[in-house]
Amino acid sequence: MIKSELIQKIADENPHLYHRDVERIVATVFDEIIEALADGKRVELRGFGAFSVKKRDARVGRNPRSGEQVEVEEKYVPFFKMGKLLRERLNAD
Amino acid sequence: MSGKTLTRMDLSEAVYREVGLSRNESAQLVEDVLEHVASALVSGENVKISSFGTFTVRSKTARVGRNPKTGEEVPIEPRRVMTFRPSHLMKERVDAGNKS
């Protein structure tokens, strides 16, 4: 499923909403998550999962082609951990 | 970094501010977004949200695990796991935001 299909499903279930409003709703949900993580916050969505930020320390890396050493700066990466309910739903047979 | 945690409530508040539906309906729509993503994954579909990221479901085969405390062998059943791969845009915004 891609974003436009997600938007279409929600639009179909909510015929009283303008399509462009459904687009804004979906965009707002995902933007808000990114915005929170960019502020160093966590986003916890019970049953679904939690988004958080992990810090990767600076390190000396190596260019795999030339073998040359390169300094890799510290960086902050988004991380998602699936919620318990979703994990159970994925494995309910 | 404020260390605060956002929940569904904050997301529905954002939708409420952005679109001007009732608080109730905003909360319901946030729930609908999450539920559609979840049920697509449960049905085995990957979910790709451009400029956000991709949720991928993978099947893992059975293997023999070990209780790290007792050393005892325990069978691990085949199961499905999900991974999230953030988009380039998300990675950039999260990195830039946390560095500043």
Automatic annotation (TrEMBL), chain A:
Subunit: Heterodimer of an alpha and a beta chain.
HAMAP family: IHF_beta
Protein name: Integration host factor subunit beta
Role this protein plays: This protein is one of the two subunits of integration host factor, a specific DNA-binding protein that functions in genetic recombination as well as in transcriptional and translational control.
Superkingdom in the source lineage: Bacteria
Molecular-function GO terms, alphabetical: DNA binding; structural constituent of chromatin
The keyword Acetylation is annotated on this UniProt entry: no
Lineage: Bacteria, Pseudomonadati, Pseudomonadota, Alphaproteobacteria, Rhodobacterales
GO cellular component: chromosome; cytosol
Pfam families: Bac_DNA_binding
Keyword set, alphabetical order: DNA recombination, DNA-binding, Transcription, Transcription regulation, Translation regulation
Organism whose genome encodes this protein: Rubricella aquisinus
Entry keyword RNA-binding: no
Family label: Belongs to the bacterial histone-like protein family.
An individual GO BP term: regulation of DNA-templated transcription
TrEMBL record, chain B:
Family to which this protein belongs: Belongs to the bacterial histone-like protein family.
Quaternary data: Heterodimer of an alpha and a beta chain.
Pfam families: Bac_DNA_binding
Top-rank lineage group of the source organism: Bacteria
Gene3D superfamilies per the UniProt record, alphabetical: IHF-like DNA-binding proteins
PANTHER family per record: DNA-BINDING PROTEIN HU (PTHR33175), INTEGRATION HOST FACTOR SUBUNIT ALPHA (PTHR33175:SF2)
Species the sequence originates in: Rubricella aquisinus
Swiss-Prot/TrEMBL GO biological process terms: DNA recombination; positive regulation of metabolic process; regulation of DNA-templated transcription; regulation of translation
Identification of the protein by name: Integration host factor subunit alpha
Gene name of this polypeptide: ihfA
